Backbone:
């Protein structure tokens, strides 16, 4: 269909423009290019996360199969130069603690006052997950008492952040309004995804990641 081709060409033109703009900005501001340097770290995390998920999915399988998956995880850890640690040991050893977990009954208050007390004094804590994962009052107190070297929070228990949130008065703290996901790469992926779904819909195909309660094909008036 002509419309499909048009939207694909439009998407490619927009991506090209955005890529050139990003490149120009990075030339003027080299510090922004640091974002690209962490991509390999994200790829390593994704590989490890996939291997860990395999163990979780197969936890109820036979012992022999579970052992095989465990060996696969050990091999992935060796390849990436990482090793499993219980959370309390990990907090005590880490210089940078970056949190990326959904908020569930199991992860609520994951970084409790007790666990925050076990963090290294020269550590930096980054929360780009959900506000309820961290005890914000305990974190603010640790920062004020210089028991933690610094923190960066993009998410909060109440959003927009409440005026009485204790983190607002904490030293050595960076607070942003839930925008950490707006990277250069994510913008390009959003364009790809949106244009792809428009093309699929125009071709009569079901768009990806539709809500379960949205009917397809859409009823006509």
Residues:
């Amino acid at each position: 269909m002509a419309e499909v081709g048009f939207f694909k060409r439009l998407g490619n033109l927009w991506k090209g423009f955005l890529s050139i703009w990003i490149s120009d900005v990075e030339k003027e501001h080299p510090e922004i290019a640091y974002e690209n340097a962490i991509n390999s770290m994200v790829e390593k995390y994704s590989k490890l996360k996939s291997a860990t998920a395999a163990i979780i999915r197969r936890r109820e399988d036979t012992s022999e199969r579970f052992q095989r998956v465990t060996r696969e995880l050990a091999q992935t850890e060796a390849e990436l130069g990482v090793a499993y640690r219980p959370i309390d040991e990990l907090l005590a050893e880490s210089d940078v603690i970056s949190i990326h977990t959904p908020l569930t009954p199991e992860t609520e208050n994951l970084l409790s006052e007790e666990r925050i007390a076990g963090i290294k004094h020269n550590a930096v804590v980054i929360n780009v997950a959900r506000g309820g994962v961290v005890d914000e009052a305990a974190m603010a107190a640790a920062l004020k008492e210089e028991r933690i070297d610094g923190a960066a929070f993009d998410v909060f228990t109440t959003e927009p952040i409440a005026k009485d949130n204790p983190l607002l008065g904490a030293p050595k703290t960076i607070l942003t309004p839930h925008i950490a996901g707006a990277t250069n790469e994510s913008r390009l992926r959003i364009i790809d995804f949106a244009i792809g779904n428009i093309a699929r819909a125009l071709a009569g195909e079901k768009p990806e990641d539709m809500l379960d309660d949205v009917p397809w094909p859409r009823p006509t008036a």
Q: What stands out?
A: Residues 51-61 have pLDDT under 50 and may be disordered. The longest strand covers residues 96-99. Helices lie at 2-28, 34-37, 39-57, 63-80, 87-93, 113-117, 136-144, 184-202. The longest helix spans residues 2-28.
